[in-house]
Amino acid sequence: MALKSRFFAKLIWPAFRAAGPGGVLLIATILALAFANSGCRDIYHHVLHTKLAHSPIAALPTIDAWINDGLMAVFFLLVGLEIKREALVGALANSAARRMPVIAALAGMVVPALVFLGVTHNEPHLWRGWAIPAATDIAFAMAVIAVLGRRVPRNLRLFLLTVAIVDDIGAVMVIALFYAQSIHFAWLAAAAGVLGAMIACNRLGVRQTSPYVLLMLPLWYCVLRSGVHPAVAGVAAAFAVPLRAGTGIHGPLRRIEHALDAPVNYLIMPLFGLANAGVALRDGPSAAGGTTLAIAIAAALVLGKQAGVALAVFACEALGVAHRPAGTNALHIWGAALACGVGFTMSLFITTLAFPDAPELAERARLGIIAGSAIAALAAGVVLWFAHRRAKL
Known about the structure:
Elements: H1 2-19, H2 21-36, H3 41-49, H4 63-89, H5 95-119, H6 138-148, H7 154-178, H8 185-203, H9 210-226, H10 231-240, H11 252-276, H12 290-319, H13 330-339, H14 344-354, H15 359-392
């Protein structure tokens, strides 16, 4: 017993603390899998999917809908704020510095999609899931890096973070363009009006936080009713929020970002994982193409992501287009490319949009996401550990 306690104190607990939000999300995922594969399975699904006796918003009739369409809009608001900050004053502000990660991120979205379509080419009803393996989960990918600590070069961390941010931009564009439902243009026009008011506040020099926060709520509601996924509202709202306050640097954007960081990472994302990662592992595929779908997603995350990102980096370097992060070797790049295959949160989110009326296929898709992300994370950790050993020789 004492040996187990020392093992936990010296290895498990420090690794969990280093993982941060990724560690909390991992616990939520394990709980979801436990609920879905135990006697609590019916209760778990009943709580999430049964219509509420009363919902203040008819378009959100279940707890699952409130999490996916309500709380996740806040997650995308934080994503949008981070993207804008990085674009203005961070890693994406310098064209030379962002060239390599942007190209790598684009290749890391295209190649997995091609792998997915290659595996599912004989089953057209699965093609709607092509974007599921296209995005990287920032929390889990950075958790893999965090657990390894100083064994990972700082420039590689920045490269991976930038790739994940560009991935998020691509994922939001994919959601807006390919997963919108029937569009209600009156509500879309109303959303444009609210967004216009936010932009006007920015242009007029309004630097208080409250006007932007108050306008975010009607913007979210209008986008929800328009048929465009409300995730787009979160990102659009973020781009209308000013970064600076007068001559200072701590404007509304940073204040809102700071206020949302802990709630999103330690509450909203775990709730999303708890609600969407509950896959029955012991059940066989109950829908045509279920096995193919799971294999396609796992293969795209593990093979497609690493191939797209790594080959893009090596090709850019060979052609003189851009240089790899300073202080890294080929194994570091390979490990980072594998870490990009951890597509958990975004992949689960896109699954809810790709197969809203096919719960059996969505379940198989989630199984492929969990398996592929787990394999990619473990492989990334191993490769990056060997990369550190090689760099010391």
